[in-house]
Every structure is written in structure tokens, then in C-alpha cells.
Amino acid sequence: MSFKITYAGLDKQVEVQDDLDSILDISTRNQIPHLHECGGHGRCTTCRIRVLDGIQNLSAKTPTEREASFIRKWDPSIRLACQTYPKGPVVLQRLIWSMAEVTALQKELAPEGRAEERPIAVLFCDLRNFTPMSSQNMNFDLAYMLNRFYTAMGEPILMNNGIIYQYVGDEIIGVFGTTGGTREKNCTDAIRAALGMQYALEHLNKVELKDLDLELKSGIGINFGKAYVGHLGHPTHRQFSVIGDPVNVASRIQGMTKTTKTKILVSLNVMNSIRENILDTGQEFELELAGKEGLAQLTEIKGFKEMDSQLELQSSLHLMLNDQDAFAHIFYEKVFEKSPETRLLFKRNMQDQGRLLTHMLSGIVYTLARPDHLISGIKALGKNHVQYGVTAAHYPIVREALLETIDTVLGTNKTPNTMNAWQTSLDFILEEMQQWNKVKT
User: Fold this and answer.
1) What Pfam families does its record include (predicted)?
2) Which spans in 174-292 are helix H?
3) Which of 1, 80, 419, 427 lies most in the core, judged by the most C-beta atoms within 10 Å?
4) If phi over 0 gives left and psi between -120 and 50 gives alpha, with beta otherwise, what is residue 246?
5) How far is CA 256 from the centre of its chain?
6) 421/315 Cα distance (integer angstroms)
7) Are 85 and 19 in contact (CB under 8 A)?
8) 279 class by beta-carbon count within 10 Å (0-12 exposed, 13-18 middle, 19+ buried)
9) Distance, CA of 389 to chain centre
10) Domain boundary among 35, 65, 97
11) Side-chain half-sphere exposure of 239, counting CA atoms within 13 A
């Protein structure tokens, strides 16, 4: 049995051989960009699609999908790609094409006419010396550089449960806590994102921008407080907005990184929200912020005192999967070398299988900031792998092959902390996945 999935707007068709894969799996295997912010576990709605034809050829909605549809009042043609399995030809349209469109999701979480005051952490990141850079470089080079900058700096925000709220000139603004979370978690996520942005900028300068003879620098300010979360604008063009004193102060704090010659500064509100003795701090300042009375206490952040596994995994992921096909090839060669009989478990084209592997690894790292999503996703993986014929004896082989592959691919970019973080995380993930093997026996 084979049939075609047609992606409207892309003028692209892919042939499907069976009904074992979700639409998201099919997109991933065929290298069709398809957002799945939660890793494809039904914990977000960024993979949503509209079915233009062939709705009768789709699997019934899962309880997770029914709940999402009910809350958002979707019409029957809108489905979640990660929850939907085609059984015949389908014509579909992706509804969220890029993370820039995730504002649409925030509108659903803050419906029209129901603005709220929420405790949030706000991060302002500014690209240094953009004005002289503009006069010294060609326009298209600047556009390329800015797009690479926004991409590199945006990923740590998204990985840490934040949203990219706005781009303002050469600034990027991230917000943490619009959908909930404790004060401590939102502030910790913001700080981890800021540190991840520094790692990302270092890589950007070393690898992607070296031929343009550019070295980008940034300053980051973080504040915490209650802000208005809702919609503003003309009735015909209202948009999701976050406004209030915490936002303004975060911008002022970012400006002070120039004066203090620091990379990351946070407010006293942020420091009071974080557990003691987990941050490696630098200088402390008492400075006057424009528009504010009195002196603001600001603290320089250099890192975490002890290894933060999330930061290590997030910072190494883009290096590790820079060439996803190469990573997967090395991994499976190691698996087959250690256990030749495992070849019989793989019925797909190995290139397709490799893309599913790297998709899975990316999804796990992206959901580290959402522990409940992570656990449910790992359990689903374990259940699926039992159905594929994976046994408890295979897991040590996979663990060893993955660690060797990560070590090989990262090369000189790895540190002892990086490998320790991957080892600890893989031990946890594979142990959780094996629970289904124990249930089966």
C-alpha cells in the first residue's frame, strides 16, 4: 500500500509506503521543515496543519488532540501533525511556518478581551556597535549577519521555555513565564538562555561569520516582575503584547552592560528569585537607571557554579547535529558493529531512520525545560520501541554507540562537562524507556 501526501504551498508531494508514521514523522523524514516545539509529543500545537482534502484518510483524534481542539475551538480540518496518522492520500497545509509566527499561539493563551497581569522574566539582548557596522558593510551582508544573529540568539530562548517576543532593530527580546511557571524557574530559564546565547555567539563568530571578517558582541539584561500580558492595537490589527515596568527596566539594565563592560547583568528581583549559591557571579553595581528613582542593584552573571546539564546539552546540540546525516551514519555504523543482528530491526531506508534519530535527540533537548513533557515523551518512545522489537539487551549498546558518536562528532568542541551531561542524561532517558520492556516481561 502506498499513497501520496501533498504539501499545499510548497508544491511538494511525498510518497508514503505504510500507515505507521505520523504526518510529523513523514515531514521530518523527507526534510520538510515542520515546527514541533515540544519535540512532537502533543504538548504544544506548533505542528498544527489544515487538511484541505482527504480528511477521511486520517486517524481519529487522540484524547490529547481532542483537548487541544476543544480549548482552541478549532474546526475539524485543523489537526496536530504529531498525533495524526494518514491511511490514504491527503492534501495539507502547515499553519505555523516559523517560530516568528508563534505569536499566534500566544493569542490563544491570552484571548481577546482577557488581559492578565503575570509574573515574568524579561531578557533584552542587544547587538553591540551595529551603527558603525552598518556603514562598513554591504546591505545584503548585514541582512545575512542579522538573520544568523537572530537565529543563533533565539534558539536558547526557545529551548528554555521562553518566547521570542520582539525584534527591535538590533535587539531581540525574550519573555519567560507567559504560560506559567514558578518565579524561580522562569528566572533560571532566562539566565540559562542568556548563557546559552553567549555560547551561540562565540560559535557564530568562529564558524559562520569568519569569512565576513565580523566579530559580533552582545549585552544582555534580565529583570523579573509583574507585567501586562494581552492584546494592544487598533481593533483590526491587535497583537500580543507584554508591557509594564519589568520590561522597561530590563531594557535599561541591558543598556548598562555597555557602561559596566559586562556581558550579562540581572536585577535584584532576579537574584532574589534564584536559589542561593548556584550562580557564578562577578561584579555588583549600584546604578541609576533612566526614569527610575534611587539606585538599582545589578549583578554580573558569569555562569553556574556547578555543571548545568541543560546548558551543556543545549550548547552542544547545534554543534553535534550540524550535519545530521553524518551523525546518524556514524551512530548506526557503531551500533551494527557492536551488534550485527540489530540490522534486522530497521525496515526503513537508513537515511530516513537517521533523520528520525536526530529529530528525537533534538526533541529531547528542547523539552528539558519542561520536565512533564519530557517524561511523557520518553515513555512514548519506550512504548514505540517495544513495538519495533527493541529489547532490554539493546539499550547498553545504544548508550555506548551514542556516547562514542557524540565524542567523535564534537571532537575538540567537547569538554568533560559536555560528555558528563550527555552520559547522565542518556542514562536517565534509556532507563525510563526500558520501563516498557519490564512491563512487557
Assistant:
1) Fer2 (PF00111), Globin (PF00042), Guanylate_cyc (PF00211)
2) 183-203, 245-260, 268-271
3) 80
4) alpha
5) 28
6) 11
7) yes
8) buried
9) 30
10) 97
11) 7
- CATH at residue 32: 3.10.20.30
The whole-angstrom separation of Cα 247 and Cα 226 is 9
Sign of CA dihedral 53, 58, 61, 65: negative
Task: Select from 261, 266, 301, 264 the least CA-distant residue to 280.
Answer: 301
Cell output for 222: 534580565
Instruction: State the amino acid at position 209 in one-letter form.
Output: L
For the four alpha carbons of 407, 408, 411 and 413, in that order, the dihedral sign comes to negative
Does residue 314 share a domain with residue 301? no
pLDDT in tens, 318-354: 889 888 899 999 999 999 999 999 998 887 678 878 8
Nearest to 24 by CA among 67, 81, 97: 81
The torsion angles phi and psi of 191, rounded to 5 degrees, stand at -65, -40
**Distance from C-alpha of 310 to C-alpha of 94, rounded to nearest angstrom:** 30
Q: Within the chain, what is the greatest distance between any pair of CA atoms? A: 73
320 shares its domain with 403 = yes
- Cell 541591558 belongs to 254
Q: Across all residues in the chain, what is the average pLDDT?
A: 86
Q: From residue 47, how far is each of 3, 218, 317, 393 by CA, in Å? A: 21, 32, 21, 34
Q: What would the pLDDT profile of 388-424 be if each residue is shown by its tens digit?
A: 788 989 999 999 999 999 999 999 989 999 999 999 9
Instruction: For strands 90-94 and 3-7, give the pairing.
Output: parallel
pTM for the model stands at 0.76
